[in-house]
Amino acid sequence: MQQRFKWSVHMTEQTQELVHKYSENGITTLTLNQPEKKNSLSMAMLEALSEELAIIASDSETRVVVLAAHGNVFCAGHDLREVREQFDSHEFQLALFNQCSKVMQQIVNLPRPVIARVAGVATAAGCQLVASCDLAVAADTARFATPGVNIGLFCSTPMVALSRNVSRKHAMEMLLTGEMIGAVKAERIGLVNQIVDEQHLDEMVYKLARTIADKSGHTLKIGKEAFYRQLEMPLEDAYEYTSKVMADNMMANDAQEGICAFLEKRKPEWQDS
């Protein structure tokens, strides 16, 4: 498929582009851009991604985010060479994993839906990145793993996102064996929403993104926040909380416009309020 991304650039001290950003029609695409390092989540990459997510959080024009990557590896997890250079520094290791955890939470807390566009391999923190996104579309050649156990470093932080996406037994199987799973199994256990032939990956991802971007941005924000908050609540508390959310939502301009438009058989005109 013809390359259609235009880029704004996040610059590191070495002036290398780490994260490309392109926005069009309410869809912002963030693309990891260190294919020579397998798009690993170095401290610099995490900081660049965090910065872009913070900008998007206050960008009223963005309704949907697509998270993509250049190269044949979506993300190989942390940069193990960087980690090795800091073996003697517990302070750095803690800062690295805290920064990674911050980025994952930024994705979950972002008031915009995030779709992972997965081509190639997503391992360790890269698999965590996919699991942290609200939706994921994968090429049929994509593969996933949490292989930390193979090198003596259990994937404890990836476990947080993984265990909130798939069943306990499937999560434990991935974490304990460290073995790679294919796209078909990833879809079956709920790690990704759908798989497509790689040549149709962009078509499917952006079809999904456009469908979501056509909705009220205000409503999407309310719904995403409520979804994640109610997940951790007991049943009774979840219903009490979401009943209030719906009542508050009903007072919004977009809810009232949407209901009127439906009854009047016309397309709604969103005000995002």
TrEMBL record:
InterPro entries: ClpP/crotonase-like_dom_sf (IPR029045), Enoyl-CoA_hydra/iso (IPR001753), Enoyl-CoA_hydra_C (IPR014748), Mitochondrial_ECH-domain (IPR052377). GO terms for molecular function: hydro-lyase activity; isomerase activity. The keyword Isomerase applies. One of its GO terms (biological process) is fatty acid metabolic process. Keywords: Fatty acid metabolism, Isomerase, Lipid metabolism, Transit peptide. Transmembrane segments: none annotated. NCBIfam families: PRK08139.1. May play a role in fatty acid biosynthesis and insulin sensitivity. Belongs to the enoyl-CoA hydratase/isomerase family. This is Enoyl-CoA hydratase domain-containing protein 3, mitochondrial.
